């Protein structure tokens, strides 16, 4: 097999048709002709499969070293499909710092339908081990969390979960297969909001699941085909195109993040920086060094108590005030007032999300310009 960077660019299926096109075309076809009644056709209806979607699913399966990929219309659709592997009466252990939309899915949708969940700090292996019950069927977590960039070990949690015959489902939106391959570390299912780094350009929403075994693939296929939140061919093509440059984008995201961190470290108005490689004595640093090739392009920081985070972000001129992450352009948000606003303040503070916390998704602009923008905004507060 060729190396990862070659797979990114060339992993898609070549010779898809007779025209010599180097890319799989956008097949705008919801239905496909049967040569004759009862023929064993590969394609029959878009919800069940479309060649453009299939091509990008195939690349993702290879990138994650999995059995099969499944592309969805959003990250949440992928998460819903992955959690549909479980049944009423099943118990799942979930990370206590997972994406807000996933919490909403769990609390407002799945719990009322009979699934049980226990929130656990997945950085604490003993706490994970202690949370198993006789009906525990799965563990769901994010190896790097949002917005505090806490790192959990896929290896260790997978080992514990498999002793209990529980499935390990990992949302690896923040790292992508370029930096970490959870299936190789023991996970059974890896999923992404492909809206973020895999797509990479803030121009569509998508989700991706990659399964480790044929049995899981068959189950997810049935769920996807039944629930139907599939990725449309136009977006499947955009995702294919985004993935081709994942490596060079991610390298630059990290390079820019490191330069910004060096600047923030020298700024007395910054109280704390959250990024897994900042504290080399930490467990986070140990795990990220052992299980990933880098920490990605998102970082958070707190301004000193009393300084106005709202005024700071309102003063930024180049960096865009917006939720989401993983795009070419730099995005900034204040979790307490934006992405995590729904969480009551006492709970939010317990999670470590202060009003002074600012999250930055570092883009691909020149780092000097990003630092100059941050610097002029600091001068306003
Ligand atoms: C954005 C995000 C999601 C949800 O994905 P959508 O594409 O917005 O539906 C899930 N998990 C993480 C970690 C995310 O950042």
From TrEMBL:
GO terms for biological process: methionine biosynthetic process; transsulfuration. InterPro entries: Cys/Met-Metab_PyrdxlP-dep_enz (IPR000277), Cys_met_metab_PP (IPR054542), PyrdxlP-dep_Trfase (IPR015424), PyrdxlP-dep_Trfase_major (IPR015421), PyrdxlP-dep_Trfase_small (IPR015422). Coiled coil: none annotated. Gene3D superfamilies: Aspartate Aminotransferase, domain 1 (3.90.1150.10), Type I PLP-dependent aspartate aminotransferase-like (Major domain) (3.40.640.10). The keyword Lyase applies. It comes from the Bacteria. One of its GO terms (molecular function) is cysteine-S-conjugate beta-lyase activity. Pfam families: Cys_Met_Meta_PP. Keywords: Amino-acid biosynthesis, Lyase, Methionine biosynthesis, Pyridoxal phosphate. This is cysteine-S-conjugate beta-lyase. It comes from Lentilactobacillus buchneri subsp. silagei CD034.
């Amino acid at each position: 097999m060729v190396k990862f960077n070659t797979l990114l660019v060339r992993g898609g299926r070549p010779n898809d048709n007779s025209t010599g096109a180097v890319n799989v075309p956008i097949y705008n076809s919801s239905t496909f002709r049967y040569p004759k009644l009862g023929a064993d056709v590969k394609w029959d209806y878009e919800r069940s499969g479309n060649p453009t979607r299939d091509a990008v699913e195939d690349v993702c399966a290879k990138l994650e070293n999995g059995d099969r990929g499944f592309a969805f219309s959003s990250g949440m659709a992928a998460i819903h499909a992955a959690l549909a592997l479980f049944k009423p009466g099943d118990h799942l252990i979930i990370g206590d710092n997972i994406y807000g939309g996933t919490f909403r899915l769990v609390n407002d949708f799945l719990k009322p339908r009979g699934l049980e969940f226990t929130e656990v700090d997945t950085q604490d292996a003993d706490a994970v081990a202690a949370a198993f019950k006789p009906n525990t069927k799965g563990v769901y977590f994010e190896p790097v969390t949002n917005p505090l960039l806490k790192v959990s070990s896929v290896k260790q949690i997978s080992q514990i979960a498999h002793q209990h015959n529980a499935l390990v489902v990992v949302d690896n939106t923040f790292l992508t297969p370029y930096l970490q391959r959870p299936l190789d570390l023991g996970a059974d299912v890896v999923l992404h909001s492909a809206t973020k780094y895999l797509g990479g350009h803030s121009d569509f929403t998508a989700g991706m699941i990659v399964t480790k075994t044929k049995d899981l693939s068959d189950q997810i296929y049935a769920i996807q085909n039944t629930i139907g939140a599939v990725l449309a061919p136009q977006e499947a093509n955009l995702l294919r195109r985004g993935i081709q440059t994942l490596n060079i984008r991610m390298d630059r995201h990290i390079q820019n993040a490191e330069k910004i961190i060096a600047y923030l470290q020298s700024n007395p108005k910054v109280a704390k920086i959250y990024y897994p490689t900042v504290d080399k004595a930490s467990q986070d640093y140990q795990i990220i060094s052992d299980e990933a090739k880098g920490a990605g392009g998102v970082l958070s920081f707190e301004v000193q108590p009393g300084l106005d985070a709202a005024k700071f972000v309102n003063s930024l001129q180049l960096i865009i005030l917006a939720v989401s992450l993983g795009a070419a352009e730099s995005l900034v948000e204040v979790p307490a007032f934006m992405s995590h606003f729904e969480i009551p303040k006492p709970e939010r503070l317990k999670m470590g999300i202060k009003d002074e916390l600012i999250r930055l998704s570092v883009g691909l602009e020149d780092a000097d310009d990003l630092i100059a923008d941050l610097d002029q905004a600091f001068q306003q507060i």
